[in-house]
Amino acid sequence: RGLFAGYDRKGVPNAIKAAVLESGTSDGSHPARHIISRASRAAESAAEAAIEAALDEKIGQIMEE
Q: Are 21 and 33 in contact (CB under 8 A)?
């Protein structure tokens, strides 16, 4: 299942609602809020640090063998 799987009470897909929040509407009635891109940028350095730590640990294990 995707991050925005499902529908709201009126039957509108959550993925479409998320796309409108991220990019806005073409007629300008809903401006872009960039919720997804902000969240991914905020988590990027923490994710890179976690990957680096995992790689360092795995390389250390391989070198000990």
A: yes
Helix (H) or strand (E) segment spanning residue 23 = helix 14-23
Q: Is this structure's pTM higher than 0.90?
A: no
What whole-number distance in Å separates Cα of residue 51 and Cα of residue 17? 31
Q: Which residues contact 21 (CB under 8 A, 6 or more apart)?
A: 30, 32, 33, 35, 36
Q: CA of 50: how far to CAs of 3, 4, 34, 54, 55, in Å? A: 22, 25, 25, 6, 9
Coil, strand or helix at 13: strand
pLDDT tens by residue, 16-29: 999 898 999 999 89
Q: Which of 49, 40, 54 is nearest to 3 (CA)?
A: 40
